[in-house]
C-alpha cells in the first residue's frame, strides 16, 4: 500500500515493487537499479504542498533516499565495476629501460615490479597491431613467437638492473624451453605477463627465468627463458 498523509489511499501492485506514483498531477518516478529493485514496505510524503524527496524503507536495510547510489558491486554500472590496472612503470619509463622501439616494443605498462627478482606487465592487444593483417586476415590471432618475445621483454625489465649486472648494450634473449601455448590471444585481449628470476649465474652472465602469460585469469602461454646478461667473466 502507498500511504499519503493528509489524503486517502492509493492502490499499489501486489508485489509492492517500485512503480510510478501520481499525486496532485505530479508524477514521481523513483530511480532504482533495473537489475534488482528493492521491495518497498512504506512510501510516505510529509503533509505539505511542496513535495519533498521521498524515502524508501526496505526490509534489508535502513531507509535510504531514492537517489542513493547502489552499494553492491554487482549493481554498479559495468564501466565502473572493474578497477584499472595500477601503473608502476609507464611507457616512458619502460622505454628508458628497454632498447626496443616501434613496432617491436610489446610491453605497455608494468603493474608490479621487483628489480632483479620479478615483474608483471601488460600488453594491450589491438586490431591495429601491425602483425594482424597477415596473422590471420580472417581470424586475427597474436603470433606465439610475439607472445614469447613480449614475455622476454618483461624479463629484460627484471634483469636490466645494477643489482644483477644487467647492461642495456649487452643483454640478449638466449633461449627458451618447455614453452606451451594454451589458448589463442586475439584482438581486444589484455595479455598479463609475469616473469620471475629462478637462477642467476653471474660468472657466466646467464639468467634463467620462469614466465607465464594470462588472459582473463587463464594461462595462455608459459615456459622457461634464458637471458644473457653480458656480464660474464666480470
TrEMBL record:
Q: Where in the cell is it found?
A: Cytoplasm
Coiled coil, from the record? none
User: Would you tell me the Gene Ontology cellular component terms?
Assistant: cytoplasm; membrane
* Pfam families xref list: FabA
Q: Kindly state which keywords UniProt assigns to this record, in alphabetical order.
A: Cytoplasm, Lipid A biosynthesis, Lipid biosynthesis, Lipid metabolism, Lyase
The reply to whether Lipid biosynthesis figures as a keyword in the UniProt entry is: yes
Q: Which InterPro entries match?
A: FabA_FabZ, FabZ, HotDog_dom_sf
Q: Name one GO biological process term.
A: fatty acid biosynthetic process
This protein is called 3-hydroxyacyl-[acyl-carrier-protein] dehydratase
Q: Name one GO molecular function term.
A: (3R)-hydroxyacyl-[acyl-carrier-protein] dehydratase activity
- The record's EC number reads 4.2.1.59
Function statement: Involved in unsaturated fatty acids biosynthesis. Catalyzes the dehydration of short chain beta-hydroxyacyl-ACPs and long chain saturated and unsaturated beta-hydroxyacyl-ACPs.
PANTHER family the UniProt entry points to: 3-HYDROXYACYL-[ACYL-CARRIER-PROTEIN] DEHYDRATASE
Organism this protein belongs to: Arachis hypogaea (Peanut)
Amino acid at each position: 500500500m502507498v500511504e499519503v498523509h493528509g489524503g486517502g489511499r492509493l492502490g499499489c501492485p501486489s508485489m509492492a515493487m517500485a512503480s510510478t506514483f501520481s499525486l496532485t498531477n505530479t508524477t514521481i518516478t523513483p530511480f532504482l537499479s533495473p537489475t534488482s529493485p528493492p521491495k518497498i514496505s512504506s512510501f510516505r510524503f510529509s503533509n505539505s504542498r511542496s513535495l519533498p524527496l521521498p524515502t524508501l524503507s526496505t526490509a534489508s536495510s535502513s531507509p535510504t533516499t531514492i537517489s542513493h547510489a547502489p552499494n553492491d558491486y554487482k549493481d554498479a554500472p559495468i564501466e565502473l565495476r572493474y578497477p584499472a590496472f595500477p601503473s608502476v612503470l609507464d611507457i616512458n619509463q619502460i622505454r628508458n629501460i628497454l632498447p626496443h622501439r616501434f613496432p617491436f616494443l610489446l610491453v605497455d605498462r608494468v603493474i608490479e615490479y621487483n628489480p632483479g627478482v620479478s615483474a608483471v606487465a601488460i600488453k594491450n592487444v589491438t586490431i591495429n597491431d601491425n602483425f594482424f593483417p597477415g596473422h590471420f586476415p580472417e581470424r586475427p590471432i597474436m603470433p606465439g613467437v610475439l607472445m614469447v618475445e613480449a614475455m622476454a621483454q618483461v624479463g629484460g625489465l627484471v634483469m636490466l638492473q645494477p643489482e644483477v649486472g644487467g647492461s642495456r648494450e649487452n643483454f640478449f634473449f638466449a633461449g627458451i624451453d618447455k614453452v606451451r601455448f594454451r589458448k589463442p590471444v586475439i584482438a581486444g585481449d589484455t595479455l598479463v605477463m609475469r616473469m620471475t628470476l629462478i637462477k642467476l649465474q653471474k660468472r657466466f652472465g646467464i639468467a634463467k627465468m620462469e614466465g607465464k602469460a594470462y588472459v582473463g585469469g587463464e594461462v595462455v602461454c608459459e615456459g622457461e627463458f634464458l637471458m644473457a646478461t653480458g656480464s660474464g667473466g666480470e
